[in-house]
Amino acid sequence: WPVCKKYPQPCPNECGEEEIERQHLKEHLEQTCPLQVIQCEFGCNAQLQRRQMPAHMKENVETHLSLVRKEVPKLQNIVQQQANLIKQMAAQMKQQEDHIKQQEDRIKQQEEQVKRAFMQLQRGKPFPPMDIIMDDFEKHKKSCVSWYSPPFYTHIGGYKMRLKVD
Description:
The protein is mainly alpha-helical. The protein has 4 helices and 8 strands; from the N terminus they run ββαββαααββββ.
């Protein structure tokens, strides 16, 4: 019988309940047993039997109210911190949404470029003219050192070339 969940047993506090199923004993002690010693929910450190708690609540209203008043600023601070955190997270989310939009736009542009290049490849036409930009032209001009462009192809299947500036 000691492992049977349905086995009836009396309340260990001797409250008068004689046949409580073992599976419901914990619930009885935590929620309904009038002789169970419980802690005051306002944090005044009183430990009384459950049946004595209503009288304790009536007798200590002012004490409990002062305990609650002390906690209000702490709770307001927590609420303010949470509100600030929510604002920060909303701003970060907006930045990420903007970044995602920019990346989506870049992807669309690159897809279009790939489509155009593929169409030109199928038609056998050369790529459109390219602009080759030389950074720091004045610096290179004064240094008297040769400058080479990045390699490029004249057209699809064409020559690979690069420019040299002396």
